[in-house]
Amino acid sequence: xxxxxxxFSPTGGTKILVVVYGNRAYDDTFAELRDALTxxxxxxxxxxAAVAEHSIMHQFAAGRPNxxxxxxxxxxxxxxxxxxESDALPEYDSFPGNRPYRAYSGVPMKPAAGRGCTxxxxxxxxxxxxxxxxxxxxxxxxxxxxxxxxxxTVCPNQARSVNKALLLAGSMILKKECSAAxxxxxxx
Length: 188
Hints:
The protein is an alpha+beta fold. The protein has five helices and six strands. The chain has helices at 29-39, 67-85, 122-126, 150-154, 164-178, and strands spanning 2-7, 14-21, 43-51, 112-113, 160-161, 185-187. The strands form two sheets. The protein has a four-stranded mixed beta sheet with strand order 1-2-3-6, with helices on both faces. Strands 4-5 form a two-stranded antiparallel ribbon. 26% of the residues are buried.
């Protein structure tokens, strides 16, 4: 699951939360993100949950976001813009999520470099959490890695992958939960 937020004010103030997830669930992500931003002094006026292709098991939500998603997300943005242009800009405080947050135990699938790795360092540069060694890009710290699969995506030699047996087992576990297409959601 990738998470990010869109800022309309460079000096803080109002935020719109956007959660992108791979057709399974986004669990407590909205609650955690809102709590962190509120604690930092920001107000959250809206949120969007957007479905995208699963980052590990690409058969789930393959091809998403698609044109229908794009049209829907543009419509969400227009509704948020209308809210922002109104005189009253109330904070939205009914985001889904539990407190305490669900414990995150990690994903057992950690990408590794294979024989085709040329140690170009692109994976290390692009890793959002610094889990790949700068001295030896073939080494990934599995305690830091969040299994986002960014390194696999950016590898010019397709030399990074996850264990095929774990991938198959994970696919079987998620098949029931991820097979039906999830919908994008707007919280306004």
